[in-house]
């Protein structure tokens, strides 16, 4: 295609119209030839963000925000850590991408020598140097991607990370306020204690350890194979058991071989 573009008659070279037609035809053929490559690049540009986390389509960014006109906030954004990082990235990318023009600059002597070479050799050498420059640019861009993509993923994960206060607030919203849960637990314990105390009159015997535990047992000779546990209470509740049993007309009894006090109802 390049060979056909540079091959024309002397008459065409002296007139502008044939040269313009030749240039338009060359541009059209070049466009059709490069179209598959352009389509491939477009597909890669659309698929790459999806592989990194998906697309985000939102009209929120187009809504006017007068807070952005605040000069103080604008200065803070300019001198922020994120802005300095983006500036450093832009400078690094410019330096790396500038490797391709530097390659062409260092090979300017070879480009100047193309004028003294035969057309076939000159085209071959020019295309070779252009391919080398393009390959160098692609290699540099790959290096930029290998550095920038992991950094973007890390920075995004860091932004999504919740602070300690946010974790506490989310835990409180999902699990409930600890103070409210403590009050509910106290009410449940009070209700359970009330149910136990209401069953004390059904007991035939209450065995207590005055400082640790108390149990209320019910036993009917002939109908039960073993005593049935009616209620139990830990720690400070045995005193309440004893008081409730006394109110029901029980009298104290101590089983010496158990070394624990015993209250038995009269039947």
Calculate the mean pLDDT score and round it.
Answer: 73
Order of strands, widest sheet: 3-2-1-5-4
Instruction: Please estimate the helix content.
Output: 55-70%
The structural class is: alpha+beta
Strand content: 5-15%
How many E-type strands?
Answer: 5
- Major sheet: 5 strands, antiparallel
As a whole number of angstroms, the C-alpha radius of gyration is 45 Å
Q: How many separate domains?
A: 2
Termini separation (Å)? 119 Å
Number of helices: 11
- The coarse silhouette is rod-shaped
Low-confidence stretches: 251-267
Order of helices and strands: HHHHHHHHHHEEEHEE
Structural account:
The chain is 64% helix and 10% strand. It has helices at 2-5, 10-14, 16-52, 71-78, 81-97, 99-106, 108-113, 119-160, 164-175, 178-199, 237-247; strands at residues 205-209, 213-218, 228-234, 251-255, 260-264. A five-stranded antiparallel sheet has the order 3-2-1-5-4, with helices on one face. Mean pLDDT is 73; it is low at 251-267.
What are its keywords?
protein transport, 5 strands, transmembrane, 64% helix, single chain, 267 residues, five-stranded antiparallel sheet, alpha+beta, 11 helices, name from scop, rod-shaped
List the helices and strands and how they pair.
Layout: H1 2-5, H2 10-14, H3 16-52, H4 71-78, H5 81-97, H6 99-106, H7 108-113, H8 119-160, H9 164-175, H10 178-199, E1 205-209, E2 213-218, E3 228-234, H11 237-247, E4 251-255, E5 260-264
Antiparallel strand pairs: 1-2, 1-5, 2-3, 4-5
Helix pairs in contact: 5-8, 6-8
Transmembrane segments: 37-57, 133-154
Function: Required for formation of the rod structure in the basal body of the flagellar apparatus. Together with FliI and FliH, may constitute the export apparatus of flagellin.
Keywords: Bacterial flagellum protein export, Membrane, Protein transport, Transmembrane, Transmembrane helix, Transport
């Amino acid at each position: 295609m390049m060979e056909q573009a540079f091959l024309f008659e002397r008459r065409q070279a002296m007139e502008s119209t044939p040269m313009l037609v030749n240039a338009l035809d060359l541009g059209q053929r070049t466009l059709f030839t490069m179209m598959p490559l352009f389509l491939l690049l477009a597909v890669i540009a659309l698929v790459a963000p999806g592989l990194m986390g998906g697309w985000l389509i939102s009209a929120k960014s187009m809504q006017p925000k007068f807070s952005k006109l605040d000069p103080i906030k604008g200065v803070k954004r300019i001198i922020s850590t994120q802005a300095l990082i983006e500036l450093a990235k832009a400078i690094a990318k410019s330096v790396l991408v500038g490797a391709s023009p530097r390659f062409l600059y260092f090979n300017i002597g070879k480009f100047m020598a193309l004028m003294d070479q035969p057309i076939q050799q000159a085209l071959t050498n020019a295309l070779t140097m252009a391919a080398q420059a393009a390959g160098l640019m692609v290699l540099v861009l790959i290096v930029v991607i290998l550095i920038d993509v992991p950094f973007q993923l890390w920075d995004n994960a860091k932004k999504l990370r919740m602070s300690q206060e946010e974790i506490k607030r989310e835990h409180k919203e999902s699990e409930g306020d600890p103070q409210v849960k403590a009050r509910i637990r106290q009410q449940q314990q009070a209700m359970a204690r009330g149910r136990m105390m209401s069953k004390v009159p059904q007991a035939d015997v209450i065995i207590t350890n005055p400082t640790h535990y108390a149990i209320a047992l019910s036993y009917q000779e002939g109908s039960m194979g073993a005593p049935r546990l009616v209620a139990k209470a830990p720690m400070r509740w045995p005193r309440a058991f004893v008081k409730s049993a006394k109110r029901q007309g029980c009298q104290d009894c101590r089983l010496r071989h158990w070394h624990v006090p015993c209250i038995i109802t009269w039947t």
